[in-house]
Amino acid sequence: MIGVTLGILFMLVPEFYSKAQKQDVFVSLNPLLEFNLTYLPNGNSFDKRYLKLLVRFDSATTYIKNFYIPDQEHKKIEVFLFQLGVLKEDNIRKIIPLSFSNDQLEKYSTVEVTYQNKSIEKIKINDLFLKGKKISIIERALYFLLTLVFSVIGLFGIWLVVGSVKLHIEHYQKTGETLEITNLIAAKLEGFKYVLRGFKSENKDSEI
């Protein structure tokens, strides 16, 4: 139980809080000099399960993102290409490999990305997301709620663990023996009742 409790407090709670607090910092990278879509290279051939997006904004820096086609990760790119009139039907494979012409590149004055080590996390062109999305107020509120809920669960778990340890110590001090409870469910119920009593042992000899 202590492992689960610590996992909740030190893994889940920080993760949800981080997501609730996270603010996307988009970097504007203009002008767009290169936009290529191809399949992911695999030795001397290509792995056609993956689309590879390559964007370049200067002579030295290239940003890359791979999309797994069976999971429909490329759908936002399809929407983007439909709006451009580049994609005429629902089959992106017919236009791969794709490279924008200089005339097409000049149309995209607003290109913004969030990235890590030149790997794109989110990218939007002219305010249309090709990868990722803006975190909504509802999503942010949900992450805050999950942070609160799991914080309460974790703290309650710590409280139960402390109560259980104290119960075992008191039993050992009175009897000189460790508390042996073969039924795990019964042990948890007994520990829970002990906590509710304010860490006080039940007085069974109060009545004769």
TrEMBL record:
TM ranges: 141-162
Lineage top rank: taxon: Bacteria
Sorted UniProt keywords: Membrane, Transmembrane, Transmembrane helix
Name of the protein in question: Uncharacterized protein
